[in-house]
Amino acid sequence: MKEQPTICLKKLAEFLECAFSPEEEVKGVVNDILRLCSFENLSNLEVNKNGKYLMANKAALFRRGEVGDWKNHLTAEMSETLDRITEEKFHSVGLKF
């Protein structure tokens, strides 16, 4: 998704059965959506800087999504628990990790 966001957005739109029309693509709608949904845009919105949250601190809401960064946030025990839960939940559909 990070390497080819335009292609992924178009595939997602098709999956949701609301593909972009040729006119929308020419008008730049795909690029507008990518810009509006970008990490930089969302993390800099005023509400996300100064809004009130009932749960965690604001820094916990936005992560860059870098590969392997989970190691900086999860302990080995937390990782093992997450792996176990994932395997349990997806076992019935035949996915193996």
From TrEMBL:
EC number: 2.8.2.-
Top-level taxon: Eukaryota
A Pfam family matched in the record: Sulfotransfer_1
Residues in Sulfotransferase domain copies: 1-93
GO molecular function (one): sulfotransferase activity
This protein's UniProt keywords: Transferase
Keyword Transferase: yes
Major enzyme class: transferase
InterPro entries registered for this protein in UniProt: P-loop_NTPase (IPR027417), Sulfotransferase_dom (IPR000863)
UniProt entry tagged with the keyword Transferase: yes
Assigned protein family: Belongs to the sulfotransferase 1 family.
The protein's name: Sulfotransferase
